[in-house]
Design goal:
The protein is mainly alpha-helical and 227 residues long. It is built from twelve helices and no strands. α2 crosses α3. It is globular and about 60 Å long. It starts with a helix and ends in a 7-residue tail after the last helix. The relative contact order is 0.10.
Length: 227
Amino acid sequence: MQPSPAMQALIEQVYHIFRRYPVPQQFVVCCEYCLSQQEQKALRNTSLRAIPYSLINAWNSSPGPDPQNSDEVRYFLPRLLEFVAQRQFDNIHEVFSLRRINLASKENWREDERAILQRFACQYMADWVSGDEAVELQYMLEMFSRADIALSPLLDAVISVPGYQPTVSMACLLWHNREENIQNSRFEQDDDDKAITAQINAWAFNNQSILKERARQAIENPLKQPE
């Protein structure tokens, strides 16, 4: 899928900000069965913008047990985010698409690097809800949460998009995370799920006024169905 013009411009900024990192000569991977020597050679010898999805996904899906190399992650990050912007996700599940980011320490990340990652996430969420249909928000928020990205600005980005369908998408998310629904679910939440739910519900509590106003607008201006 072609990203929005705003997202395309943001991706160019990502490439510019992370341009300082060299091509990795060694990779922190699980084993050669996960990322073969041939694939590692191809990653080293292919220009970043030309790396195909299959190769970046193989790298992203094979983190080793050792602490990840932060420079290695930042070198590949522009191409990884570009594929996510095109909605080419991890081949196991979209929530794992950015998992490499949180496996590497961000203590030495520059402020502009942290900021552009947050901006990417906000723009992605705004674009995600800007279509003609309601969309699933839970998985996208989990994807960004696994990259240690704050969720409150992402929810601000979602609610800033006007229209009926973004309101429906938000309503579904809040309903899913209601305490009684979680308690009655057949699936027990793990610590990551609980942290995501806590962030969502805290944001909803702090934004009751705008949520009520968006609900009123949706009720008074329901989506017209084609005849």
